[in-house]
Amino acid sequence: MPALPSWLTEPLWDQFVALLPERSEFHPDHPLGCHRRRISDRIIFDKMLQLLRFRCSYEAIADTACSATTIRSRRDEWIQLGVFARLKQIALDSYDRIVGLVLDQIAVDGSITKAPGGGEVAGRSPVDRGKQGLKRSGMTDGYGIPLGRVLAGANGHDSPLPAPTLDRLDVLGPLPDDITVHLDAGYDSGKTRTLLNERGPHGHIAHKGEKAPIRASQRWHVERTHAWQNAFYRLARCYERRTTVIDAFFDLADTIITVRSLIRRAWTTHRWDERPNRRP
Predict the structure, then answer these.
(1) CB atoms within 10 A of CB 156
(2) Which NCBIfam families does this entry report, sorted A to Z (predicted)?
(3) How far does the chain reach from its first CA to its final CA, in angstroms?
(4) Which of 28, 136, 179, 241 has a Cα at 20 to 30 A from 104?
């Protein structure tokens, strides 16, 4: 069963392979000039998509095409090269150029998920009987396109997270002069308002103790994006222990979400050779 439909996998792979360095089929340092052939990058890429989507273990996804050790080593190699982060940035730039990011309306919110294996950014979850959990402070534009995230332990408070989360806006280039940041009641504090006043954006913060419809502000966009991310089961129940690996899987998921939204929204306004026959 494919992890993603071909209309989404193929453009992802075309851009991903363009970021990889040239590698010889055999290792050049082998004394006899021959060696076992290097496993195709496309095989590892497809395995990474399956790991992200289905949350299976490396040993379970390994087969005669490649071993679990090969998947891990190639993953770490790509992380060291910064391929996942660059792929996400290219997807954001493409979306901004074709559709346009809604950067005058920013939504920030946190989400707690399970982290049974613990790890560098795991902590005791207050909503899961003290089991190990992971909190992410996510930021989206006014449509729900993921712009960045900050990872922390599930036992951490939300108040220290908006500052490093909003720092992710620096890589997006020119920003609108008037930006509104939508936050839920968990950020209803003087510390958050002082932070926003120092940085310039206006804050639209829900008040504690006051019930409001979910669409009372633009905050629901980030909550929908959390649901999109949790549809990738490796993020909803994370067994990875290293922060760099978790960030790589999040970058890959954010790239998929961005490209999927780009194809769906551009389907009625643009034409290209591999355009799906019907709207995805």
Answers:
(1) 17
(2) transpos_IS5_3 (NF033580)
(3) 18
(4) 136
pLDDT band at 139; cut points 50, 70, 90: very high
User: Tokens at residue 121, please?
Assistant: 């950014």
The span from the CA of 180 to the CA of 104, in Å, is: 6
- Please name each of the domains of the chain with its CATH number: 102-239 (3.30.420)
Mean pLDDT for 145-154 is 94
What gap in Å lies between CA 48 and CA 24, rounded to an integer? 22
Query: Which pLDDT value is given to residue 177?
Result: 86
pLDDT attached to residue 204: 79
Question: Rounded to an integer, what distance in angstroms lies between the CA atom of residue 205 and that of residue 106?
Answer: 12
Q: How far apart are CA 105 and CA 137, in angstroms?
A: 17
Is residue 41 within a helix (H) or strand (E), and if so which, with residue range?
A: helix 41-54
What separation in angstroms does the CA of 100 have from each of 91, 138, 147, 265?
12, 20, 13, 11
Element of type H or E holding 139: strand 132-140
240 alpha carbon, distance to own chain's centre? 15
Please state the pTM of the whole predicted model. Answer: 0.91
Question: For 154-163, how does the pLDDT look when each residue is reduced to its tens digit (9 = 90+)?
Answer: 988 787 888 8
